[in-house]
């Protein structure tokens, strides 16, 4: 059972002429049952590939596997009062990694740093959003300085670079005191 065009080849646009020619070439080389079987097996293969990608994504991004970063998008349900009351505690937990830095237990430093900085980041972002527009650029600069140093400290701990770790920790202390003085 061959498909026959209703319109002659001369009146078709170029794209459809190419499609018609490629289909005719397949028609001549493969019997109709094989053409149907080929397209069905391609569909099944495509569906299987997409399904395995989705399942692999779920397996890779599980919280216990990707413990470095929290990849979930969260709507801020935190009030300004909660953020202001919790920011000092989270800042203190970020400063408390000094004991881990002195003992040079780098893996524990990274874990504690990531946990405390993510909580602090959430609190500080809520506070920035509550401030008037004229104060926000300076607070965003402080936010950027603080968390760039946190990232640098994380990389320095991974590389076990003690001098860079101490330098980044000092920058974090200065930035935190500046931030806490403003809030």
Automatic annotation (TrEMBL):
Family according to the record: Belongs to the PsbQ family.
InterPro entries: PsbQ-like_dom_sf, PSII_PsbQ, PSII_PsbQ_pln
Organism: Hevea brasiliensis
Subcellular location: Plastid, Chloroplast thylakoid membrane
Keyword field: Chloroplast, Membrane, Plastid, Thylakoid, Transit peptide
Pfam families: PsbQ
GO cellular component: chloroplast thylakoid membrane; extrinsic component of membrane; photosystem II oxygen evolving complex
GO molecular function, one term: calcium ion binding
A Gene Ontology BP annotation from the UniProt entry: photosynthetic electron transport chain
Name of the featured protein: Uncharacterized protein
Source taxon at top rank: Eukaryota
